[in-house]
Amino acid sequence: MKKVLSVLILLCSITAIAQKEKANRIDSLFTAMNQNKEFNGVVLFAENGQVIHKKAYGKADFIKDIPLTTESVFDLASVSKQFTAMGIALLKNQKKIDYKDPISKFIPELSFYPSISIENLLTHTSGLPDYMDVMNEHWDHSKIATNRDVIEMLASIKPALLFETDTQYEYSNTGYLLLASVIEKVSGKSYEAYLKNYIFEPLKMTSTLVNRPRFAPKDIPNLTKGHVDGTDGNPTPIDTYGTDQVAYFLDGIIGDGMVNSTVADLFLWDRALYTNQLLPKREIEKIFTPHTLKDGTLTNYGFGWQLKDHPSYGRTIGHSGAWAGYLTYIERHVANDKTFIFLQNTSLRTTGNPVFNSRKLLYNEPIEIIRFTAKEYRIEELETYTGIYKNEAINMDITIAVDNGKLTGQATGQGAFPLDSYKDHKFKFNPAGIVLIFHEDKSSFKIKQGGNITLFTK
Questions:
Q1: In contact, 51 and 44? CB cutoff 8 Å
Q2: Would you call 161 helix, strand, or coil by DSSP?
Q3: Comparing 266 with 17, which gets the higher pLDDT?
Q4: Residue 196: what pLDDT?
Q5: How far apart are CA 340 and CA 313, in angstroms?
Q6: N or C: which end of the chain has fewer CB atoms below 10 A?
Q7: Which letter does DSSP use for residue 263 in this model?
Q8: Cβ of 197: how many Cβ atoms within 10 Å?
Q9: Do the Cβ atoms of 39 and 58 come closer than 8 Å?
Q10: What ranges in 36-130 are assigned the alpha helix state H?
Q11: What value does the CA radius of gyration of the chain take, rounded to a whole number of Å?
Q12: Which 3 state secondary structure label does DSSP give 407?
């Protein structure tokens, strides 16, 4: 028996040493990124239910010089969608709704969209245009809009669907706004109260709440400020940019964002998803099941989660977020019980890829640092990159063009985004964390976003 205990103690010691070495590598990466003004936030890494590294890097408020702590609270942006999806799943489990129910059953003002179901909203297959574009064009920017305002706007102008429902996947915030309104209609509670009563309180997520800082300000301990790149290249609080910005006039919207949390609370959330604490296992699995389109094609999205079967890491479940000076990410490697979370309150110019390298660190692989050096291109140089680049596997085209002396990218059915230029054929759209790296002959480029790498060719 003593020998067995000795072996167990030795194995535990070896594991502890290996985790310590891994934690040191993680700390080295994020320390360097923070020092290079490439990362400002809090990270958490875990394996087999144990936190191996949790640390804050940078400032909660740059103007007041307040440092971040591991208890800092961040706007989760689109990482909020998984909580909206869970709210719907809980109502389904309570037999108050069905995923196949048409949205007109709960929001009769939108009965002119008869084919759209709850499941279509959950899986971004409704064809609805993004409400942000609609409101940006039609809404008075001096007023803060709510979900009810968006629904009334949609009912008034009746925007056409971008495609026949359930024939394509296209990410749309509109679906999750409507899902929050369904939660309120069916439960008789506010979205905030419903999530608090049925998710946050049961899981003891004591620092997690719904927060609309401009529409209904709250005094929240440890709340961070969102920052964007200022004209001098330094982080500037987004509130200094005035009211004519979506972060102001869409601050009353809930469902697609507005959940605020900490890395510790998100880790409680991660652990609960391995159990039946909130839902039976079969209902949890439904959340993490890719949606099937009408033609039998599988998407890479479940209910509020992006899904991937990685050749090296197994099944991964994650989501990114970007809003009002915040960048957020959670990824769960369910086949190997590994998790990493990072919450940032800046949209700093990054030269590394924290998601891509975080995966590598968890599996003891060499990391890859992409360096960017700013470069001004002549118009004739930029024009050599233009054209339509395709990826047939995901049925998407990206059109590269030149506008006002800058390269722009425009994916199928979406608006154009400007690209900052760097040496070695690299271009970036910082607000969404998009990086394009062109082949030297301009025949293709790799696009990196949220840790995913996709090849597009002419």
A1: yes
A2: coil
A3: 266
A4: 98
A5: 13
A6: N
A7: H
A8: 12
A9: yes
A10: 81-93, 118-122
A11: 22
A12: strand
For residue 353, pLDDT beyond 70: no
Q: Where does 224-381 show beta strands of DSSP type E?
A: 227-229, 235-237, 259-261, 306-310, 314-323, 326-333, 338-344
Q: Are 373 and 380 in contact (CB under 8 A)?
A: no
Q: What is the pTM of this model?
A: 0.81
Alpha carbons 172 and 131: distance in angstroms, whole number: 8
Residue 241, pLDDT above cutoff 80:
no
Residue 439 tokens read as: 């082949």
439's CB contacts (< 8 A; 6+ apart) are 425, 445
The tokens for 193 are 């109260």
Cα–Cα distance measured from residue 259 to residue 323, given in angstroms and rounded to the nearest whole number = 12
pLDDT at 10 (0 to 100): 47
Asked if residues 406 and 421 have their Cβ atoms less than 8 Å apart, the reply is: yes
By 3-state DSSP, what share of the chain in percent is helix, strand and coil, each rounded to 5? 30, 25, 40
**Is 78 annotated as catalytic?**
yes
Evaluate whether 410 touches 416 at the Cβ level (below 8 Å). yes
**Residue 11 confidence class, pLDDT cut points 50, 70, 90:** very low
Letter for the amino acid at 281? K
Angle between helices 131-138 and 173-187 (to 10 degrees): 90
Average pLDDT over residues 190-194: 98
The answer to whether the beta carbons of residues 76 and 328 sit under 8 Å apart is: yes
Q: Answer whether 207's CB lies under 8 Å from 71's CB.
A: yes
Higher pLDDT residue, 187 or 236? 187
| Dist. CA 215–CA 393, nearest whole Å | 42
Interval 275-326: pLDDT, tens: 999 999 999 999 999 999 999 999 999 999 999 998 889 999 999 998 988 9
The C-alpha atoms of residue 448 and residue 456 are separated, in whole angstroms, by: 11
Looking at residue 304, its amino acid is G
CA 264, 316, 182, 215: dihedral to nearest 10 degrees?
Answer: 40
Distance from C-alpha of 391 to C-alpha of 198, rounded to nearest angstrom: 41
Q: Which two tokens stand for residue 184?
A: 């309120």
Q: Which residue has the tokens 């509670």?
A: 189
pLDDT confidence tier of residue 14, bands split at 50, 70 and 90: very low
Q: CB–CB of 180/431 below 8 Å?
A: no
Q: How far is CA 418 from the centre of its chain?
A: 20
Q: Of 78-92, 242-256, 348-362, where does mean pLDDT reach its minimum?
A: 348-362
Candidate list 28, 72, 78, 312, residue with the active-site label: 78
CA distances from 44 to 57, 67, 171, 317, 447 (A): 12, 17, 27, 16, 26
Say how far apart CA 130 and CA 174 lie, in whole Å. Answer: 5
Q: Give Dmax over CA atoms of the chain in angstroms.
A: 77
Amino acid (1-letter code) at residue 448: K
